[in-house]
Design brief:
Layout (H helix, E strand, L loop, with lengths): L1 H25 L2 H10 L8 H17 L8 H24 L3 H28 L3 H21 L2 H10 L7 H18 L5 H53 L9
Length: 254
C-alpha cells in the first residue's frame, strides 16, 4: 500500500518534472527571437546550450530500459531536450558571424556526439547488468549535469563585471531553479543519488543566478536607458552635421 502510494507520487512528480523541464528547454526562445531579429548572437554564450545538449544525451542513455529500467519519464524529456538544443545550436551557428567561434561550437558538438556514441557502445557491450550500467552512466550523467547547471558561471562573471543582467536570460534561470527542485524531489521517491546530487547542486546554482538578477536588475535598466539616450544624441548630431555640411543648392547656374 505504502509502496504503491510512493510510486504514484513519484510518477506525479516525474510528470511535473517533465513539464517544468520542457519549460526549461523552451525558456531561451525569447533570446533566440532577439538573435533572429538582430541577425547576430551578440555577446550571448553558446556554453549553456552545448552543456545541456551533452547532458540530455547522456540522460537518455541512463533512462534506457537496458541501462536503468522504469525510467521512461527520464528518456522522454531528455530526448525532447536533445532535439530542442540541436535547434538552438543550429540557429547559433547561422547567426554567429565570428568564424572561429562558429568552428569551435561545431567541433564541440561533433565531439559530444562521438563521446555519446562511444559511451553507449561500451556500456551495452562491456557491462552486463543493469545495476552496473546504471552506476557507470549515472556517474557520467552527474558530471555533465553539474556542468550544465554550472555553465552560466561565465555569464555570471560577465554580469558582475558589467553590473548588467542583459545577457543572462531571467526565464532560463527561473526554469533551471524549478527544474532542479522538481527532479531533486523525484530523486527521493525512492532515493536515486545519480538524480539527486546534480539537481540539488543545480538548484543552488540557480539560486545564485536569481540573486544576481535581483541585485543588478535596476542597474541594467539604467545602463540600457543610458545607451539608448546616447544613441539618440548621436543620431541628432549626425542630422545637424549633415544639415550644415551638405546644404541643398536652390539657385541655378547662369
Amino acid at each position: 500500500m505504502v509502496s504503491h502510494l510512493i510510486n504514484t507520487i513519484r510518477n506525479v512528480v516525474g510528470i511535473t518534472g517533465n513539464v517544468i523541464s520542457l519549460f526549461l528547454f523552451l525558456s531561451p526562445v525569447p533570446t533566440f527571437i532577439r538573435i533572429w531579429k538582430k541577425g547576430s548572437v551578440e555577446q550571448f554564450s553558446p556554453a549553456p546550450y552545448l552543456a545541456t545538449l551533452i547532458n540530455c544525451m547522456v540522460w537518455v542513455i541512463y533512462g534506457l530500459p537496458v541501462v536503468h529500467p522504469n525510467s521512461t519519464l527520464v528518456v522522454t524529456i531528455n530526448g525532447t531536450g536533445t532535439a530542442i538544443e540541436v535547434v538552438y545550436l543550429t540557429l547559433f551557428l547561422i547567426f554567429c558571424h565570428d568564424k572561429s567561434k562558429r568552428r569551435k561550437v561545431l567541433l564541440i558538438m561533433l565531439v559530444e556526439l562521438f563521446f555519446v556514441a562511444v559511451v553507449t557502445t561500451l556500456v551495452l557491450t562491456a557491462v552486463h547488468t543493469t545495476e552496473r550500467r546504471s552506476m557507470v552512466v549515472g556517474i557520467i550523467a552527474i558530471l555533465f549535469s553539474i556542468m550544465m547547471y554550472a555553465s552560466p558561471l561565465s555569464v555570471m562573471k560577465l554580469v558582475i563585471s558589467t553590473k548588467s543582467v542583459e545577457y543572462m536570460p531571467f526565464f532560463l534561470s527561473l526554469a533551471s531553479f524549478a527544474n532542479g527542485v522538481a527532479w531533486t524531489t523525484y530523486a527521493f521517491l525512492p532515493f536515486d543519488p545519480f538524480i539527486s546530487v546534480p539537481n540539488g547542486l543545480g538548484t543552488l546554482f540557480s539560486v545564485a543566478q536569481l540573486s544576481l538578477y535581483a541585485t543588478y536588475y535596476k542597474s541594467t535598466k539604467r545602463i540600457i536607458a543610458a545607451r539608448q539616450e546616447t544613441k539618440i544624441e548621436m543620431n541628432l548630431s549626425e542630422v545637424v552635421v549633415n544639415g550644415n555640411g551638405d546644404p541643398k543648392k536652390t539657385g541655378r547656374a547662369s
